[in-house]
Amino acid sequence: MSPSIERQQLQTVHIVPLTAFDQQDRINVEMQSAHTTKLYEAGMRVYLPGAGTSEFHSLLPEEIVQLVKITREVTGPETLIFAPIGYQVNAAKQLAVDCLEAGATGIMFMPFAHPYMSDRGAEEYYRAVMDAADCPTLFYKKAAIPSDELLLELASDERAVGVKYSVNQMHQFRTTVSADTEGMEWVCGSAERFAPYYMLAGSGGFTSGAGNVCPHLSLAMHAAFLSGDYAEGMRIQQQILPIEDYRARCGDSFNISMLKYAITLTGADFGPPRPPQRTLTSEQEAEIRQLMEPVLAAEAELAQQKSPVS
What sections of the protein cross the membrane (predicted)? Predict the structure, then answer.
């Protein structure tokens, strides 16, 4: 098994990097490397390459392995990299092993795409993959399965280090966190929009897609909440919310498309998202350009403040 992870290492922003594609619809290695380096230099230390905002459902297994490899190559040894795992169980086992060989710290089980789910089936799936990989493991909860009861049962496994919780029922979340006697880390899986409420209820960190275009703001927001300065955290959240509110339109269907266009405003061309992600109209692009102006200005100002004095 990989070296153990200290709980505080997970109490930060978990960035889900956008995936850069070239004109041939292949991973743009140069662009991906440069972007990940930029995120690392901003202070990101936990990565979920190939996960939801990275277009997990449109990536080949070998592309996920490639993204893990790129992330490991351009970040420091202290960086935690969790590879997204899902779909058919034997393919999931192989992907987990391949990603660990490519430099992943551990794995993260993505929400099930299978029909007819049960806790019993989910547990058997989890344990089969965990036995094959034998590494630090995160679980992503976005539906009734896995249940909170199953997650609490899995917490006794030394490989289970945390849960990416994205159901957004705060009392349910708080009750579950309070019932955990094993010390897993319960991470807000719903990004900056819900992070303040999750952190008040017991989360030490949150996932982020917006951090692709404003990493300093996301990290500063987390630092404020972690220190208990909720007024400052909410002030920074207000700067990021235009991104999150736009991504949430029409059942979250702008989640990836919005960011893929927004990152072009920083000078990076990541190519369009793969189908079936929605394409943007010229009017929508104009809206995004307008809402991103103050966000990018605030990000640039904060980045300047954080840069070392020459």
Answer: none
Task: Identify the active-site residue in 140, 165, 246, 261.
Answer: 140
Reported residue count of the chain is 310
Assess if CATH 3.20.20.70 describes domain 7-229: yes
Asked if residue 105 belongs to a known ligand binding site, the reply is no
For the chain, the domains span: 7-229
Rounded to two decimals, the pTM is 0.97
Give the number of other Cβ atoms within 10 Å of residue 242's Cβ.
18
Q: pLDDT tens for residues 143-160?
A: 999 999 999 999 999 999
96, 131, 268 from 93: Cα distances, Å? 5, 9, 34
Question: Catalytic annotation on 87?
Answer: no
Residue 160: strand, helix, or coil: strand
CB 302 within 8 A of CB 217: yes
Is residue 66 classed as helix, strand or coil in its secondary structure?
Answer: helix
% of the chain exceeding 90 in pLDDT:
96
User: Beta strands of 216-308 (E only): which ranges?
Assistant: none
Nearest 5°: phi and psi at 213? -110, -15
Among 69, 93, 141, 164, the active-site one is 164
Active site residue 69: no
